[in-house]
Inverse folding.
């Protein structure tokens, strides 16, 4: 008795073609997997000890970024506001608000507030806020519509390719220095073109994409 | 067998024994595959190989857990056994391709019976070669960064690096080899399927045979495909091994920085590869008592290839010495003197003897057909080739441009484990091929028989 | 402090229990992978200490739950002067044999990270020594003493204070009879004052000072020669001829960094317009000055004395009959003498601390005769607190302890049980002291032998003050609160005095308040803050005093000694890294290759090649050395340039207690008798037949025909400067890279490099270079990014020595770059050869392809396997993990920081604004870094000199790092003799 009916040949060919297609899919995964939201954590707003709203403080009350992020213009780190800074206002207003409990605790017991990072870079990446500010890169370029975030969420993948996209062609991401901290800034016909800003800020793109700019 | 062992074979000597008929051949070969239980010698061989394979797995685990530091590599000798053995294994594999592809194109009759052995050997050696570069990485987990795919890092491999050429070549070579083997074995699998008794074997080989039923069209396609692939494989193997040579030639390292490496390596491939095939042929011939299929004609021919290889290699050795001695580079000269008389001296001299001096015995017809002698000579060549790879890999690094940073190399137990382990991997795979795949190309030997008849 | 102590203690205890449990092994496997290897590197006991310390530290650092990487902890209130991401410098000083050298400690995010020399401090001038660089590691060393202990039982500070109060009552009753204080050599004004008040309160008290590497003979000679104690300070800028006698002038003498600076400045003919000093050296064992000398003779100590008399005689500094005795080196010495005489007023004769009184007297006499005093040598009032000769002092202390005259002993600093002369048997006598207190950084030999041991605060953890070689005072300000609950000597003495104020800040401040008033320095706060900021108390340098050298020197000296009958001589010398043993627990210094031997993790008996041949010894043979009854086993190291029949035994090794240094090397102190501290006859040397593996980092000693070291003479330089270096300009098929804007480059002057290894440790500190341990050094896996190759030329017994610092060359055609398959090492547009750790897969092809062998590979996770407090790493530099390549980056982190600042201010980077770690610390300014495209930068100027060359020119790698050839200034008279 025959084990293989003629139809078996069909299976063979389908199997062969199937493997090819499967392989193709696996290859595709190399591109797809890293960019799915779960892995990029884009639009991810982690739980925070205090439900701080940039929307309220920045767009609502019109606080300047630098009021809390004090060192953003001078050093690599923007500077997370110390409890004291929060308390400059909140010792006066919302003094008993429940949501500010851990804030008051921190001050009373002299232990830092434990925020959860939204933007986190690996240790081998040396990012410097001050230079980006100085070269007219607005906060929102990386932090997205931060001024309208009720809870802070991650606006970009922070993948190296994403950094490079700007480091290789900064022009579209530049703005006049006085607009850097404006969360609602939009390019208008009157704003100088990226090219002009590049020359104005002495930005040398060649050097910008050197590995040593971020990796030491 | 009516051939006397003293005289050289007549040019028209039969390639296969006269008593081999088409049917007998099919049964002869298929039975080896279909037999209920493997012969004792197979179990012995496999029993010896498998523990070594386990060792391979263990050393792999140890290495990946504790890091490259468990080996003897150091600064300046940053490449040790792993790379030397990579070259060694890839040479053996290449030898297989040379015999099966190159001599297919030359239509050498003796090739047909031995090509399957060659290919099985090649397929068993290639994984050993492939593992070595990955094992020797500091961060093996990231070896895939050598693939040219657009990563989220936005960076690509460095195409100027010989290592990258090497990586690409190796990948292509491995894939091609598998297809090549399969294209060749397809009809035989069908034969085995047809002769299979048990349902399981019928299905097993049936699936592998991919519904081959020997129609003219299928034969036509198979032969064409096979021919084309040989035509690709033959030059490919030359280039693959030359690129391996470029890993060295491309380096600005004393003793490496020489254009002779590509041919040098290729010669090495010819001799070492053929040597292994000879050894395995003798084994199969004896083990499966296929004396009249794998005749002395084959051994004789193979031995001649080995001889040619060793002469070519001798030529390469002369150049290896001529360069530094004739040249004006102080560093190169000191390095070569160190290589000859420094801590690498033992391997340096024994390699020359094993690879060039002793094989000259093969000029004597008697030696070519005396199987124990042939076996020993070939074994010597394999060892010698390993020593050769080891010597120039280490020596160039150890005696570099900066005297204050001269060093020596002490292999650790894990270096030896890696060597033994890969040998285990090789043998284990080969014994499995022996057991479960027709080890002589039935289809092609049939052609030979037909030709013989027509003579 | 106490809560920290508590936690530390509980961890410690738990470890002791834990260590006995079987789970320990598994626990260790989890806590410290490669436990196996660490145990290879250290024996189990020390490994336990490591673990204990690490856990104690874990206890210290853990305030609340550990923050996970995803957490972000802002300050509750930002402390003033802390700007995250900016580093700030705070001035202080660190002392060696009591003398201060000014430092600036750089703080990042409020943590002391790196030590630099203080440019405003006369003893540093911006340079720093290897041990200064390494001091920051000691600050963080988790193996430091952390617990107060009484009779070996863990106690608390409060217990101690209580005990001390009772003691005080009894002592008061007895007017301080039986009270002794033992300190190191002391220059701290405030502490001296405090001890003085102790003396006042307890008239019976006696204060001893002890330094194993004391300078007694120097002081004795001063008193004999000048009739009063004086210190000698030198001015090498004026010295055209220098005659060193086993001289430590540029290596360990107080003020050596400043001297080295001037020494090198006078030996850069290509930059000083064709003039350079000439140096003669006679010595028994190689010194840095000897290595730089234009003429050097290796001779036995007794020969040295005789030769010096000969020279003195020739120069008329001694009786004529001294010139009568024949000497093997007569011509050499005569030539030298003539040369010296020809440069009256511009010569300097200097003898090292190891030389006997006689030699120092002769040196003074010659200096006096040649008019050096007042020009190249000036006399100042002694800087150290005066004390009787230290050897005598420690001997008397020992005797009194034995005879029960001592019932209360405070040991504040020194470690006599370990380093007091062997025949005193200090340990045994210490047991007769009912109440002994040891304040020490580590639980060392003395600490464990005392009834009370108190963890000392590191100099960076307490207030204090100290004086430099020229008397300048620095007020030491703490760089951190005591990490391990250390205490300062001020506290202990204050309690002894029963004063209500026991904190060092107030005491030091009050002292200076009074003193400022006496010296009416005006507004105190201004003075105080000014002094702290600058790191120097203004106008405290000692003025030159005049003192006439008494004549008829000959009468003072014993008659010329007859040549000693042959026989081996043991010489005791400071170790280049461990110093007297006080630095022996510092991992960086332990792994620092010694300048001449290139040894790490061990000391060895140094023997001349000729002597080794006679005795049939070779390197790594273990010999038994006997002096009198005491025997010590030591491995042999055959050292070219060592005097025949002299066996040099480096001190400071073979601790039996303390930190990492315990059990490493052999302890030469055991052979060191009190009558002859520096050289003593060896009874016998016996070959044991054993071998001992010594971990040196140098492969070959000679350059084997490469163009690595190029040298010429001063004549050549002045006549035909082009003839000195051979330059080949190989043609390339490829177009050259263009560097339009900036092009970083380095120039290293081989003439200036004195091989002190400071740059090696500076680089290690700055760039988070891990240590690997002896076994790994033996496996050729040492990690130093910058190494100093030592090459010999000439005969093995009298070789010329050259030191060659080798950082990454940053080749414009970098061979390493083309072979990396993943772009992990690439060139940037300013010519830096970058190493991107996080991209590296570890093929190591780049290292193979580097002709200069400057690349280092993490074969194991070195950075993580030894427990180093995470907060001690430099946060500006990635810490590399297993399996990645690394190498010198030209301190790219410094370049970037400056670059960003400049860019932010829209200005160019000024020349000298970026200094690499090695450049900054180099005492002799041998290294210059800068922009090759900036026409008038210092680096361009140096590269423009005709003697500038690059290594392995013919490989066409176009290195950015170039070298200035070695220029020697030989005395023709002597050259002729030799040829």
């Amino acid at each position: 008795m025959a084990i293989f009916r003629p139809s078996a040949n069909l299976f063979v060919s389908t199997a062969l073609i199937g493997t090819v297609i499967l392989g193709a899919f696996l290859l595709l995964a190399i591109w797809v997997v890293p960019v799915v939201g779960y892995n990029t954590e884009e639009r991810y707003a982690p739980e925070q000890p205090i439900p701080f709203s940039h929307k309220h403080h920045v767009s609502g009350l019109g606080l300047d970024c630098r009021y809390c992020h004090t060192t953003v213009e001078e050093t690599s780190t923007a500077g997370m506001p110390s409890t004291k800074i929060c308390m400059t206002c909140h010792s006066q207003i919302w003094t008993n608000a429940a949501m500010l409990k851990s804030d008051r605790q921190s001050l009373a017991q002299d232990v830092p507030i434990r925020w959860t990072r939204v933007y986190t870079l690996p240790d081998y990446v040396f990012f410097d806020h001050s230079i980006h500010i100085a070269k007219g890169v607005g906060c929102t370029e990386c932090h997205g519509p931060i001024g309208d975030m009720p809870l802070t969420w991650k606006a970009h993948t922070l993948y190296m390719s994403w950094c490079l996209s700007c480091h290789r062609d900064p022009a579209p991401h530049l703005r006049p220095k006085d607009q850097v901290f404006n969360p609602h800034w939009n390019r208008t016909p009157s704003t100088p073109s990226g090219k002009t800003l590049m020359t104005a800020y002495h930005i040398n793109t060649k050097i910008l994409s050197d590995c040593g700019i971020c990796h030491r | 067998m009516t051939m006397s062992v003293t005289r050289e074979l007549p040019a028209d000597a039969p390639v296969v024994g006269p008593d081999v008929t088409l049917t007998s051949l099919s049964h002869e070969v298929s039975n080896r595959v279909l037999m209920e239980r493997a012969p004792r010698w197979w179990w012995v061989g496999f029993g010896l190989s498998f523990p070594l394979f386990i060792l391979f797995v263990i050393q792999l685990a140890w290495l990946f857990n504790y890091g490259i530091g468990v080996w003897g590599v150091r600064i300046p000798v940053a490449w040790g056994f792993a790379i030397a053995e990579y070259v060694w294994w890839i040479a053996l594999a290449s030898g297989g391709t040379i015999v099966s592809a190159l001599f297919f194109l030359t239509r050498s009759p003796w090739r047909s019976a031995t090509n399957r052995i060659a290919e099985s050997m090649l397929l068993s050696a290639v994984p050993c070669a492939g593992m070595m570069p990955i094992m020797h990485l500091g961060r093996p987990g990231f070896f895939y960064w050598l693939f040219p795919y657009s990563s989220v890092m936005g960076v690509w491999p460095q195409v100027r690096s010989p290592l990258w050429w090497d990586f690409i070549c190796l990948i292509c070579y491995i894939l091609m080899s598998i297809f090549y083997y399969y294209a060749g074995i397809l009809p035989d699998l069908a034969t085995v399927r047809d002769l299979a008794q048990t349902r399981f074997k019928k299905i097993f080989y049936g699936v592998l045979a991919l519904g081959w039923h020997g129609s003219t069209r299928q034969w036509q396609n198979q032969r064409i495909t096979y021919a084309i692939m040989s035509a690709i494989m033959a030059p490919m193997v030359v280039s693959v091994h030359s690129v391996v040579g470029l890993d060295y030639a491309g380096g600005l390292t004393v003793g490496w920085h020489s254009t002779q490496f590509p041919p040098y390596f290729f010669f090495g491939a010819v001799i070492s590869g053929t040597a292994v095939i000879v050894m395995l042929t003798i084994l199969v011939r004896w083990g499966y008592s296929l004396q009249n299929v794998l005749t002395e004609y084959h051994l004789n021919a193979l031995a001649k290839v080995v001889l040619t290889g060793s002469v070519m290699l001798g030529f390469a050795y002369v150049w290896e010495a001529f360069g530094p001695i004739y040249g004006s580079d102080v560093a190169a000269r000191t390095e070569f003197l160190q290589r000859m008389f420094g801590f690498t001296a033992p391997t340096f001299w024994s390699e020359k003897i094993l690879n060039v001096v002793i094989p000259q015995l093969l000029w004597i017809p008697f030696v070519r057909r005396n199987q124990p002698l042939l076996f020993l000579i070939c074994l010597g060549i394999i060892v010698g080739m390993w020593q050769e790879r080891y010597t120039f890999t280490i020596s160039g690094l150890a005696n570099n441009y900066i005297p204050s940073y001269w060093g020596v190399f002490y292999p650790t137990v894990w270096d030896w484990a890696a060597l033994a382990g890969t040998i285990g991997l090789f043998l284990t795979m080969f014994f499995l091929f022996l057991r479960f795949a027709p080890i002589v190309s039935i289809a092609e030997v049939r052609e030979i028989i037909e030709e013989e008849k027509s003579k | 402090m106490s809560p920290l102590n508590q936690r530390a203690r509980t961890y410690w205890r738990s470890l002791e229990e834990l260590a006995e449990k079987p789970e320990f092994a598994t626990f260790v496997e989890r806590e410290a992978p490669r436990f196996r290897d660490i145990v290879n590197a250290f024996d189990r006991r020390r490994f336990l200490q490591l673990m204990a310390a690490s856990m104690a530290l874990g206890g210290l650092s853990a305030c609340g739950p550990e923050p996970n990487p995803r957490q972000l902890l802002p300050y509750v209130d930002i402390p003033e002067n802390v700007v995250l991401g900016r580093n700030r410098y705070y001035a202080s000083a660190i002392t060696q044999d009591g003398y201060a050298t000014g430092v600036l400690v750089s703080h990042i995010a409020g943590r002391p990270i790196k030590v630099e020399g203080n440019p405003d401090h006369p003893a540093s001038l911006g340079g720093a020594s290897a041990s200064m660089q390494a001091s920051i590691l000691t600050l963080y060393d988790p193996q430091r003493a952390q617990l107060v202990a009484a009779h070996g039982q863990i106690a608390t500070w409060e217990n101690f204070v209580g005990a001390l109060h009772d003691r005080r009552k009894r002592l008061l009753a007895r007017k301080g009879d039986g009270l002794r204080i033992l300190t190191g050599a002391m220059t701290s004004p405030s502490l001296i004052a405090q001890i003085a008040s102790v003396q006042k309160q307890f008239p019976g008290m006696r204060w001893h000072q002890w330094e194993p590497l004391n300078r007694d003979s120097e002081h004795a000679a001063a008193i004999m020669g000048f009739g009063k104690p004086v210190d000698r300070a030198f001015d090498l800028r004026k010295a055209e001829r220098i005659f060193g006698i086993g001289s430590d002038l540029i290596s360990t003498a107080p003020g050596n960094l400043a001297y080295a600076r001037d020494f090198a400045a006078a030996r850069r003919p290509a930059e000083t317009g064709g003039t350079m000093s000439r140096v003669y050296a006679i010595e028994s064992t190689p010194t840095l000055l000897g290595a730089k000398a234009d003429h050097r003779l290796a001779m036995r100590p007794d020969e040295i004395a005789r030769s010096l008399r000969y020279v003195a005689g020739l120069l008329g500094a001694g009786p004529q009959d001294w010139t009568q005795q024949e000497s093997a080196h007569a011509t050499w010495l005569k030539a030298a003498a003539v040369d010296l005489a020809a440069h009256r007023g511009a010569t300097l004769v200097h003898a090292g601390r190891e030389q006997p009184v006689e030699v120092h007297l002769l040196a003074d006499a010659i200096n006096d005769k040649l008019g050096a005093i007042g020009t190249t040598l000036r006399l100042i009032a002694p800087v150290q607190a005066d004390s009787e000769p230290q050897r005598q002092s420690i001997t008397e202390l020992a005797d009194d302890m034995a005879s029960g005259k001592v019932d209360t002993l405070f040991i504040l600093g020194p470690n006599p049980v370990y380093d007091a002369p062997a025949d005193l048997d200090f340990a045994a006598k210490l047991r007769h002291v009912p109440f002994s207190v040891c304040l020490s950084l580590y639980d060392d030999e003395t600490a464990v032998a005392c009834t009370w041991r108190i963890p000392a605060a590191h100099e960076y953890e307490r207030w204090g003050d100290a004086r430099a070689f020229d008397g300048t005072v620095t007020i030491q300000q703490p760089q951190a609160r005591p990490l391990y609950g250390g205490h300062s000597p001020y506290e202990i003495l204050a309690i002894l005095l029963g004063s209500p104020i026991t904190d060092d800040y107030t005491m030091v401040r009050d002292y200076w308040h009074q003193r400022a008033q006496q010296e009416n320095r005006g507004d105190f706060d201004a003075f105080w803050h000014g002094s702290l900021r600058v790191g120097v108390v203004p106008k405290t340098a000692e003025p030159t005093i005049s003192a006439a050298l008494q004549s008829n020197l000959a009468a003072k000296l014993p008659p010329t000694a007859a040549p000693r009958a042959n026989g081996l001589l043991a010489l005791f010398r400071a170790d280049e890294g461990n110093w007297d043993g006080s630095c022996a627990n510092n991992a960086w210094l332990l792994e620092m290759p010694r300048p001449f031997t290139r040894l790490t993790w061990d000391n060895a008996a140094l023997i001349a090649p000729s002597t080794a041949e006679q005795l049939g010894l070779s390197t790594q043979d273990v010999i038994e050395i006997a002096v009198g009854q005491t025997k010590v086993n030591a491995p042999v190291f055959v050292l070219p340039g060592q005097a025949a029949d002299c066996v040099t035994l480096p001190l400071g090794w073979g601790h039996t207690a303390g930190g990492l240094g315990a059990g490493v090397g052999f302890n030469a102190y055991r052979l060191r008798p009190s009558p002859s501290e520096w050289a003593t006859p060896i009874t016998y040397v016996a070959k044991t037949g054993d071998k001992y593996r010594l971990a040196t980092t140098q492969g070959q000693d000679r350059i084997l025909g490469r163009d690595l070291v190029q040298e010429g003479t001063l004549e050549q330089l002045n006549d035909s400067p082009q003839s000195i270096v051979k330059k080949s300009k190989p043609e390339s098929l490829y177009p050259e890279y263009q560097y339009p804007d900036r092009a970083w480059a380095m120039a290293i002057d081989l003439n200036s490099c004195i091989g002190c290894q400071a740059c090696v440790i500076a680089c290690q500190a700055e760039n988070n270079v891990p240590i690997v341990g002896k076994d790994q050094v033996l496996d050729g896996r040492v990690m130093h990014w910058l190494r100093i190759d030592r090459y010999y030329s000439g005969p093995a017994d009298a070789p010329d020595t050259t030191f060659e610092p080798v950082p990454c060359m940053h080749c414009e055609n970098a061979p390493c770059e083309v072979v990396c398959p993943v772009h992990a090492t690439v060139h940037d547009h300013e010519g830096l050869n970058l190493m991107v750790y996080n991209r590296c897969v570890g093929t190591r092809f780049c290292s193979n392809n580097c002709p200069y062998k400057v690349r280092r590979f993490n074969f194991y996770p070195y950075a993580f396997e030894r427990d180093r407090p995470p907060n001690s790493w430099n946060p500006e530099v990635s810490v590399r993990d297993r399996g990645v390549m690394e190498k010198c980056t030209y301190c790219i982190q410094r370049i970037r920081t400056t670059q960003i600042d400049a860019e932010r201010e829209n200005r160019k980077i000024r020349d000298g604004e970026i200094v690499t770690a090695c450049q900054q610390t180099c005492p002799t300014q041998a290294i210059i870094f800068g922009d090759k495209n900036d026409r008038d930068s210092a680096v361009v100027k140096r590269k423009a000199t005709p003697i500038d060359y690059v290594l392995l020119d013919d490989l066409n790698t176009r290195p950015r790092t170039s070298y200035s050839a070695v220029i020697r200034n030989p005395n023709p008279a002597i050259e002729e003799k030799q040829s």
Q: What stands out?
A: Residues 480 and 926 of chain C are 32 Å apart (CA to CA). Confidence is low (pLDDT under 50) at residues 1-64 of chain C.
